[in-house]
Amino acid sequence: MGALVLGLLVAAGPTARPLGLAGPERQAKELVGVVFRDGEGSSLTHLDEGLNAYGRRLRVGYLDASTLSPQGSIAALSTHPFESAGTQDSIRFVALGSLRLVPRTIPLGGSALAMFWANPHRIVALVQDCCTNAVSIAIIDPGARRVVSSAPIGGDTAVWTRAGDRLLVLVTPTNAIGPAQLVVVDATGGVRTVKLSRVVAGRSWPEDHSAPMLGTQQIPALAADTSTGRAYVIQPDGAAAEVSLDSLEVSYHELGSASLAARLSAWLQPAAQAKGMNGTAWNGIALGNGFVAVTGTVARAVVNGSTEQMSSSPAGLAIVDVRNWTIRTLDRGADAVAVADGLLLATGRSWTSTEQRSTGMGLAAYGSDLKLRFRLFAGDSAWVEQTWGGRAYVQRDGKTTVVELATGRVVEERAGPTPMVLLP
Asked: pTM score, two decimals?
């Protein structure tokens, strides 16, 4: 039943407008990738256009977050020196042309969940305390090498995303599912908050530590369209929220019928005798031209005596038209999407603790008209690790399969992962 959560939504008719599908833009002057190795942490290396490493490697420690300067010549890396948990991050700066460290680091006092270089004089970081797990927004002066300010967000972080030169954070009640807030951090470090009274979200865990440590989650999709200056919060149960990022004005829109909401609500709130993690975690990505892709996973777990049974399955992939607030199911087997070269790339995986193995839908590519262009690796547990230069780098069976997006052909098989391109 979990895999049909988005599949249950009302399907709209075909749209006359095409999706706006654009992949990641190159910002760095040098193409640099991150290589991770167990026991060593992360290293930076130069890459050719086929994402093959060459030249020297710079070891930087264990990397939590990164961002590039507006000019694209310097990377800021939030790293810690040891693999063990509880180690606090410092921001290190690297000249990408020479792959050499720039003097002076900045202690963060926690681990960076996200970070972006908003303007030449400010870096914004979402920082989690290693001991309390409390999250704060840190504003950093990269020139002076210091944290200018740090403010707690006042709750749990459900999800976050970039919106041009803004950072958006969806904040939920601490260890509870309840009304959410949207925190907007601008390029100057200004922080504004708006309450989303009709968005119910969060995660909760048992306060009684003698009970099984399994909880409940309800995480909506958060997407931002920089062309319209609007953010969208689309939840499994209830109205979608539309927020103007300039005025923080909020409007709500119904996506489905009351009977649909009732069915989802009943599924998301298990009976009193049930125990375990139950609920959805949705993801969203603005596709341009008034469309948002929504997908995610469904988690289930129960405790029978001393036995825990857990599973994860796709929630499906749907396309929301935010101009008329209709929704169309595109692929019931998907739990993740990526955009590249005018294609929407969908993958999905299912896992159960009893079988200890993953199965999946492979890779499906849809065009801007929502028509299927190609499908590969049917039945495989696969995901798109990254896209670059007209190719998708797909992880499956512990190897990387390189797919040419224009033709849908497999052009290369690589052992292990490919270096990840350092993006803004």
From this structure: 0.89
